[in-house]
Amino acid sequence: MGLWLRIKRVFMANTGAALDRIENPELVLQQTIRDMRDRVPDLNNSVAQVMATERLLAKNHENLQTQVVDLDSKIKASVKMGRDDIATAYIGQLQQAQLDLQRTQAQREHAELASKQALKARDNYVLNMKKRTAEAMQLISAAKQAKLQEQLAQTMDTFNIGDDSSTFSEMREKIDRRVAAAEAKLQLGSSSVDAQMQDIEREAMDIQLQDKLLEYKQQMGMLGAGTPPESKQISSGTDAKEPDILDIANEAGHSN
Known about the structure:
By secondary structure, this protein is mainly alpha-helical. It has helices at 3-22, 25-80, 84-158, 161-190, 193-219, 230-236, 245-255. It folds into two domains: 3-146, Orthogonal Bundle (Helix Hairpins); 195-255, no CATH class. Helix 2 runs antiparallel to helix 3.
């Protein structure tokens, strides 16, 4: 293969590929529909010219028939009047008119056939144009749908679900670490020395309140004379327990 042919083939291939990339099927189909519609007026003009020729020949044929009848009458009148010279002249005109009538009849028949064929061709073209237009509209609709699907596919390509899943996992892990750290701090805070000291102070306050309550009960004679306050019992190391309310009530009854 020659170098020039190879260069030509490469150029044609690259040109075809470039045209395929920039060629919009929707625009091409719309332009095709416009071109088909634009040819309809020219086709109608052509058909109208053929039909006009047919009508003109029909009119000429009618005039020639009238002329033939008129010349025939004149010939007969001339013969009756003994004017053979005039009759001979009319006969020559009659013969020419009859030839013209025959030629016009043939042309008329041909024009009628051409007119019918032109009308049929125009009707077939319009019918085919409507059919092609309907097909083109369907193809345009399919092209639009394909374009939307391509755009959706491109959008889905840019939206990588794996990346988002990893992002959610990372954020979940960070939040879990923060929650665990907060719980650990709370646990450390609740077990710290300050918290233990607060518990001891609260327990001491409760003991003081219980001792004060027992003092009031002793002053009111609701306890036995030998029953020490609970705080003193605890300080002495005994395991004596606080008197029950029923025991206090029984001792009060005996004292009375």
